[in-house]
Amino acid sequence: MDFVATETQTMLRDMADRLVRDRYGFEERQKIVASEDGFSRKMWKELADLGLLGVEIPEEQGGSGGTFADVAVVLESFGKGLVVEPYLSTVVLGAGLIAAVGWEVQKHDILPKVASGDMLLTLAYTESQSRYALNYVATKARKDGAGYVIDGHKAVVLGADTADKLIVSARTSGETADKTGISLFLVDPKAEGVSIRSYRNVDDRRAAEVTFDGVKVEASALVGAEDDGLAPLEAAIDRGAAAVGCEALGAMGALNALTLDYLKTRMQFGRPIGKFQVLQHRMADMVMAEQQARSMLFLAIEQADAKDPAARAQAISAAKAQIDACGQVVGRGAIQLHGGIAMTMEYIAGHFFRRLTALEKMMGDRDYHLQRFAI
Predict the structure, then answer these.
(1) Torsions phi, psi of 168, nearest 5?
(2) What percentage of the chain carries pLDDT values higher than 70?
(3) Is 1 within the bounds of a domain?
(4) What CATH number does residue 368 fall under?
(5) Is the distance from CB of 200 to CB of 138 less than 8 angstroms?
(6) What is the 3-state secondary structure (H, E, C) of the chain?
(7) Tens-digit pLDDT profile for residues 52-97
């Protein structure tokens, strides 16, 4: 793999970094978090105008036709600023799935709207008993005339309360844990029978419990082939795991920079605390963890769209497990080196730690990925 950023990636990084630096200060972010939607629709449109929502969407659908590596640099920048806009759920998971297996009419209808900032998507796939097993699907979709009726429940659905469309995994045949018989459907969250209970996660992002009670959808709502939804779902979640790693890396870098600056300016016994060797050693461990995470992320980015599912899964799990561990080294180290101030809501260090903790649990935690890597 070529580790040198392309001209396009350098441009995207500079653009996203500038946006975060100039328009996404901590105070502004806190106002956005406290808003009704939990993110800024104005900022979302700005991301669209800058072309950041359509980086990987094909040109014929209003995007730039870039690669996942291009998306990765944007996500790293967003991690530095703790950006709360629904980029992961809409662009990486939602639009990524439609682009991969959606019918042509779905691609031409949905992807241009995502690129322009006019449609929000999210993927509803987790169930309360599923842990991280994507094949555990108790939600059912039964045939009803020319369409389907969906019944079931999905847990921790990112941004469900503001999404324009849900992509829902449902079982069209077989038993709850079978690897076959899973299908994907586009569902309007305002449709009759859909109920959404939203809440705020530990990292200030919105998620929801979504219940489907006799929700009717047309046959055209099917995304991809009936009963063949597991493979594209697995591919989407692997891409999501790589994306989560990109954001975690950005958060680690920003938190390390914040901590180093604090060590240089916080005075104790007449000198900066960064002069104490034991704290220097701890800071060095944190920087090494960040660089180790970056190295593993290269592997994840390279394999995110690999054609061999087994090779992709092993690479993604290796990277996610290591990045999760590195995130905890950096996060815990930053809290301890800052001391009490890091525990206050008015200081950003604790918010970075909360985000790193949430990212560790998303798309499979460290234990899950270590087990998957070993199989």
Answers:
(1) -115, 130
(2) 99
(3) no
(4) 1.20.140.10
(5) no
(6) CCCCCCHHHHHHHHHHHHHHHHHCCHHHHHHHHCCCCCCCHHHHHHHHHCCCCCCCCCHHHCCCCCCHHHHHHHHHHHHHHCCCCCHHHHHHHHHHHHHHHCCHHHHHHHHHHHHCCCCCEEEECCCCCCCCCCCCCCCEEEEECCEEEEEEEEEEEECCCCCCEEEEEEECCCCCCCCCCEEEEEECCCCCCEEEEEEECCCCCEEEEEEEEEEEECHHHEECCCCECHHHHHHHHHHHHHHHHHHHHHHHHHHHHHHHHHHHHCEECCEEHHHCHHHHHHHHHHHHHHHHHHHHHHHHHHHCCCCCHHHHHHHHHHHHHHHHHHHHHHHHHHHHHHHHHHHCCCCHHHHHHHHHHHHHHCCCCHHHHHHHHHC
(7) 999 999 999 999 999 999 999 999 999 999 999 999 999 999 999 9
Look at residue 274 in the predicted model and tell me its pLDDT. 84
Please write down the long-range contacts of 32-35, taking CB distance under 8 Å and 24 or more positions apart.
Answer: 32/84, 33/84, 33/204
114 belongs to a structural domain = yes
CA 269 to chain CA centroid, Å, is: 43
Based on the domain organization, do 220 and 236 belong to the same domain?
no
Strand partners, 202: none
